[in-house]
Design a protein that fits this description.
This is DUF2231 domain-containing protein. Keywords: Membrane, Transmembrane, Transmembrane helix. This protein has 141 residues and is mainly α. The chain has one domain. 76% of the residues lie in helices and 0% in strands. It contains 5 helices and no strands. Helix 2 packs antiparallel against helix 3 and helix 3 runs antiparallel to helix 5. The longest helix is centred in the middle third of the chain and has 29 residues. The chain is elongated, with a radius of gyration of 17 Å.
């Protein structure tokens, strides 16, 4: 006899792309900040600012997707999906604050820019983990 399990939600490929892109761009911003703190080459802080801005675009789109998906009537809501939306919101807000810090002069950016990039990366890593653990790929609807 086949076991009956509750259907799980399938992650949409575009949503997965948005999550993965924000993860990799925030990681790039963190690495560029680390390179700037090691070398004091001003171009690294410019790279970090642009990578952070690109990551905010993808994170904002992923957040909008998650909010719309959360309020859809045919999707069940649980504690993990609420936590996922809140974690993406925190990632976007802290990432925006990081972008404001990166808008300063290169010497004025450190060490706050590096610490904020680290916090933002940890938040996006937790968001991606929550997103892929609550939205199972390959499951049936």
């Amino acid at each position: 006899m086949a076991s009956i399990t509750a259907p799980r939600r399938v992650i949409h490929p575009v949503h997965a792309l948005l999550l993965g892109s924000s993860f990799s761009l925030f990681l790039g911003a963190l690495l560029a900040d680390w390179a700037y703190s090691s070398t004091k080459e001003v171009q690294w802080i410019n790279f970090a600012a642009w990578l952070n801005a690109g990551a905010l675009v993808f994170a904002g789109l992923a957040l909008a997707w998650a909010i719309i998906d959360f309020f859809r009537s045919d999707v069940g809501r649980d504690r993990n999906s609420i936590l996922y939306v809140l974690m993406l919101l925190a990632t976007f807000v802290i990432g925006f604050i990081t972008a404001l810090i990166h808008s300063k002069d290169g010497y004025a950016t450190m060490p706050a820019g590096l610490m904020m990039s680290l916090i933002t990366f940890l938040l996006v890593a937790a968001s991606v983990w929550l997103g892929f653990s609550t939205l199972r790929s390959g499951a049936r609807r």
